[in-house]
Write a structure and sequence with these properties.
The complex is a heterodimer. Chain A is an alpha+beta fold. Chain A is built from 16 helices and 10 strands. Chain A has one domain: Orthogonal Bundle (Cytochrome-c3 Hydrogenase, chain B). In chain A, the strands form 4 sheets. In chain A, strands 1-4-5 form a 3-stranded antiparallel β-sheet. In chain A, strands 8-9-10 form a 3-stranded antiparallel β-sheet. In chain A, strands 2-3 form a two-stranded antiparallel sheet. In chain A, helix 6 packs antiparallel against helix 7, helix 7 packs antiparallel against helix 12 and helix 12 runs parallel beside helix 15. The longest helix of chain A is centred in the N-terminal third of the chain and has 29 residues. The radius of gyration of chain A is 22 Å and the shape is globular. Chain A starts with a helix and ends with a helix. By secondary structure, chain B is of the alpha/beta class. Chain B contains 3 helices and 9 strands; from the N terminus they run H-E-E-H-E-E-E-E-H-E-E-E. In chain B, the strands form 3 sheets. In chain B, strands 1-2-5-4-3 form a 5-stranded mixed β-sheet.
């Protein structure tokens, strides 16, 4: 009896709050998670964000439209081209500009290369999160080739400032199309290698199959978009549903989660949708390279951007999901208000809902599968 | 449905509770009617706006009128609607977190940046800025503090022009 009383006084059984981050290798940036646990089981997670807040929206109120483009680069630094493209599309909608065909094709080629590069980082670091180190080095090796292409294109390897409202900053360099096709020929078999190494690895499936299931209705209610939502089997891709640019000219599929290794919408499905998307992106690039027309990429760039009074909500399917730019113009060369709808912001908000009832080590896997970029969440 | 059809449908269900902003495909709702209209938009099967994409706060520039723009989308019917709710003198806007969970963080951000109050929000506190921040930075009349925790804030803005 006495021993039991001692044990009870020493071993408290209340809820424990575990702090993870802000400096933690598995949080993909400066993210802090307050994890409420009962033993090893997670009961609630409170993400604390804002450590990377750089006042993007306030800066926009002091900068002309052309000057905002480099700032959008720095929001999602793993898919900078997508941010440039999203912002340019919104401004072009506001200005009502007609773009030359060549610009649209170049943009699609670049955006899809960027999607592959971004997914490679997502998959590689996800492997790293669950304990597989080699896939990361392989993914970064392949991404390096895409960065080399981008370097030839505009000189920068991470923050490009390449896609401008009305056009692109440079035309394609000589032999760019050949080099891109060479890369795709090299890359297609690499996806199979990657699957052999990671996707069908038994330990990996044990860690991810059936873990952290996101039901489709919960995902939509929380505003989850992109591959994270498609992993739950929701056929929702802006490139198909509301084709912007010239995506309606290409033949490609939208990969969906099928529950191959457990339940539809589990962590493995969210992971595998990204693998399949890389193949679809390669398909789009091949078609765009084959149809690439001639033309001047600078002819539609406005001398001065001064949109009429009004507002616009531009939408774009980035590597992480549905990016929105809500721009209010008051007729000057500086916007009155720019609001960015960040996909990773909404994707992160669902974490507490799907991680509830799982172990702390599973939280790492679930967080990795949501593929967040803190630069974009905090803006 | 097109914008005109949506407006017609909303008028038959809740007459006089919303108005169209002139020259735009946007409806304006007062905070008093927002509960009814938002419930209608979400739950009515013919509208079925199940996906709240974004809440953007904005400042009208007269130091008292602030607004929130809601971008709604229906993934089942594929139609889009923008709704605006404007408040004066700090009146609270009813929270829509009960209908769309996505509103939780978006409303917190609107509160953090623009100082909009959302009535019925379960956890209305700052999200991007630190808890002890003074003022609402995206308001047009916001003045940067001279000091933040003892550190002087640079005031020279000539390099911005």
């Amino acid at each position: 009896m006495e021993e039991q009383a001692i044990a009870k006084s020493v071993l408290e059984t209340g809820e424990m709050v575990l702090n993870m981050g802000p400096q933690h290798p598995s949080t993909h940036g400066v993210l802090r998670l307050k994890i409420h646990t009962d033993g090893e089981i997670v009961s609630k997670i409170e993400p604390v964000i804002g450590y990377l807040h750089r006042c993007f929206e306030k800066h926009c109120e002091y900068l002309s439209y052309e000057q905002i483009v480099p700032f959008t680069d720095r929001c999602d630094y793993l898919a900078s081209m997508h941010m440039d493209h999203a912002f340019s599309i919104a401004v072009e909608k506001l200005l009502d500009v007609e773009l030359p065909e060549r610009v649209e094709y170049i943009r699609v080629i670049i955006a899809e290369l960027q999607r592959i590069a971004s997914h490679l980082v997502a998959l590689g670091t996800f492997g790293l999160d669950v304990g597989a180190i080699t896939p990361f080095t392989w993914a970064i090796r392949d991404r390096e080739r895409i960065l080399d292409l981008f370097e030839a294109l505009c000189g920068a390897r991470l923050l490009y400032n390449y896609i401008w409202p009305g056009g692109v900053s440079h035309d394609l360099p000589p032999k760019f199309v050949e080099r891109t096709l060479d890369f795709l020929d090299y890359f297609d078999p690499q996806i199979d290698e990657f699957n052999n190494l990671l996707s069908t690895n038994k330990i990996f499936i044990e860690r991810t199959g059936d873990v952290g299931v996101l039901p489709p209705d919960v995902g939509i209610n929380f505003g989850v978009t992109g591959p994270s939502l498609r992993g739950s089997g929701v056929n929702w891709d802006l490139r198909k549903n509301e084709p912007y640019s010239i995506y309606d000219k290409f033949d490609f599929d939208v990969p969906l989660g099928e529950g191959t290794m457990g339940t539809i919408g589990d962590t493995w499905d969210r992971y595998y949708v990204r693998v399949l998307e890389m193949r679809e992106s390669a398909k789009i690039i091949r078609q765009a390279c084959a149809q690439l027309p001639d033309g001047d990429v600078h002819e539609a760039i406005p001398k001065k951007i001064r949109p009429a009074v009004g507002e616009v909500y531009g939408r774009y399917e980035s590597a992480r999901g549905d990016v929105g730019f809500y721009i209010i113009s008051n007729g000057k060369n500086i916007p009155l208000r720019v609001k960015m709808r960040s996909p990773a912001f909404c994707n992160l908000s669902v974490l507490s809902e799907i991680a509830e009832g799982w172990m702390i080590s599973d939280v790492i896997a679930i967080l990795g599968s949501l593929d967040i970029v803190l630069g974009e969440i905090d803006r | 449905m097109t914008f005109a059809d949506i407006i017609k449908f909303v008028e038959t269900k809740a007459a006089g509770k919303s108005s169209i902003i002139e020259g735009k495909e946007v409806i304006l709702v007062s905070p008093d009617n927002w509960v009814e209209i938002s419930t209608l938009l979400k739950n009515e099967s013919k509208l079925d706006f199940d996906y709240l994409m974004c809440i953007s706060s904005y400042d009208k520039g007269d130091n008292k009128t602030y607004g929130a723009a809601y971008n709604l989308f229906s993934t089942t019917i594929n139609h889009y609607l923008e709704v605006r709710v404007e408040t004066e003198d700090g009146t609270a806007i009813p929270s829509v977190t009960g209908l769309w969970q996505a509103a939780d963080w978006h409303e917190r951000e609107a509160f953090d940046m623009m100082g909009l109050q959302f009535e019925g929000h379960p956890n209305l506190k700052r999200i991007l800025l630190s808890e002890d921040w003074d003022g609402y930075p995206l308001r047009k009349d916001y003045k940067e503090p001279d000091y933040y925790r003892g550190m002087p804030v640079p005031k020279d803005k000539t390099y911005w022009d």
